[in-house]
Design goal:
single chain; 174 residues; alpha+beta; Methylamine Dehydrogenase, Chain H; four-stranded antiparallel sheet; 3 helices; 11 strands
Length: 174
C-alpha cells in the first residue's frame, strides 16, 4: 500500500471513517464533529450546536458513521442514531437514546435481494450495534413527493391564473 494523501481532519482521535460515493470520505472525531471530505477539502460537516440546538457541545459526540451513497448513518456515544441525506446532511431520522449506551457501529442494509425484502416499502434500513449488547434495525420511511406531471400541471395553472389576473387588473394587457 502507498500513502496517497495526508491531512488533519480532526482535533484529536478519529472514531470512525467511511468511504462514500465520488471519492468522498466521512469521518467522526473525538472533537464532536462529523465531516465529509473530498480529497483533503472539507465539503460539509455536522456540529452538535447546529444539529441539535439546546444540547451542550461537549455532552455528546459522533461515534460511528456509514455512507450508503444516498444517506449517512450516524451513531453517538449516548446511544442515539440518526440518518442524514449524504450530500446536504439534512437530518431525516433521529432516535434519541435508541440504545442505552455507546453505539459502536452502524451499517446500512445492502440493496441485495434479502436486503430489499427487509426494507419492505421503506427507503433505507440502518442497523445499529451498541455496548448494551443489542442490535437494532432502523427503518427510514419513504419520503412522499409529488409526481412530476402534477407539479408541471400546477405550474401551468399558476401561469394561466397570473395571466388572467393581470388581464383583469390591466384591461388590454394582452
Amino acid at each position: 500500500m502507498k500513502k496517497m494523501l495526508e491531512f488533519k481532519a480532526h482535533d484529536g482521535e478519529i472514531e470512525d471513517i467511511a468511504l462514500g460515493p465520488d471519492n468522498k470520505v466521512v469521518t467522526a472525531g473525538r472533537d464532536f464533529q462529523c465531516c465529509v471530505w473530498q480529497q483533503d477539502q472539507l465539503v460539509t460537516g455536522l456540529h452538535w450546536h447546529e444539529n441539535l440546538p439546546g444540547i451542550p457541545d461537549k455532552a455528546y459526540r459522533y461515534q460511528a458513521c456509514r455512507d450508503s451513497g444516498t444517506f449517512l448513518g450516524l451513531g453517538t456515544v449516548t446511544g442515539s442514531v440518526a440518518i442524514h441525506i449524504a450530500f446536504s446532511l439534512q437530518r431525516l431520522y433521529y432516535v434519541k437514546e435508541a440504545h442505552g449506551i455507546v453505539v459502536t457501529d452502524v451499517a446500512f442494509v445492502p440493496e441485495s435481494q434479502p436486503g430489499r425484502e427487509l426494507l419492505g416499502g421503506h427507503e433505507a434500513a440502518l442497523l445499529s450495534v451498541a455496548v448494551d449488547s443489542r442490535c437494532k434495525l432502523h427503518l427510514l420511511p419513504t419520503r412522499r413527493s409529488l409526481p412530476i406531471w402534477l407539479l408541471l400541471l400546477l405550474c401551468a395553472g399558476l401561469i394561466v391564473a397570473t395571466i388572467l389576473l393581470l388581464q383583469l387588473a390591466f384591461p388590454g394587457f394582452l
